[in-house]
Amino acid sequence: MDDCLFCKISRGEIPSRKVYEDDEVLAFHDIRPAARVHFLIIPKLHIESMLSVEPAHAALMGKLMTLVPQLAREQGLGEGFKVNINTGRAGGQEVFHLHLHVFGGGPAAA
Ligand code: 5GP
Ligand code: ZN
After folding, report:
1. Residue limits of the HIT domain (predicted)?
2. Which of 7, 50, 58, 75 has a CA 20 to 30 Å removed from the CA of 66?
């Protein structure tokens, strides 16, 4: 996916503040944080949105979900946090590469 923003970030062509990376997954801080801690978890595989998720993606989706509490704790959100997956234009999605928002810790710094 040549001109997908999050594919470019996952290939390292656009810099990001990384939270976690392995062969299949990247997590990085949101450029416009909506909370004191706000990061995104993406599969490196280009999946447009939750509307494109298929049974073949089950293991990858499970991995994304199990990374949520691990990374949230590492980012200081052990008391709790919110997870949001905006899906489709009607669901507020702006970047069409599947991503989980994880945020918490109070209001973003001004
Ligand atoms: P969506 O509305 O698609 O769920 O959210 C996309 C998110 O990506 C937004 O919260 C936005 O701030 C974030 N974002 C957009 N462009 C960039 C970027 O270049 N770098 C990073 N780190 N985040 C971005
Ligand atoms: Zn992509």
Report:
1. 5-110
2. 7
5-104: in CATH 3.30.428.10:
yes
Q: Are strands 37-43 and 25-29 parallel, antiparallel or unpaired?
A: antiparallel
pTM > 0.80: yes or no:
yes
Chain-centre distance for alpha carbon 1: 17
Catalytic residues: 99
Query: CB–CB of 49/87 below 8 Å?
Result: yes
Residues with CB under 5 A from ligand 2 (ion): 1, 4, 6-7, 46, 97
Q: Residue ranges of the domains in the chain?
A: 5-104
Q: What is the ipTM of this complex?
A: 0.99
Q: What DSSP element (H or E) covers 49?
A: none
Of the ligands numbered here, which is closest to the C-alpha atom of 87?
A: 1
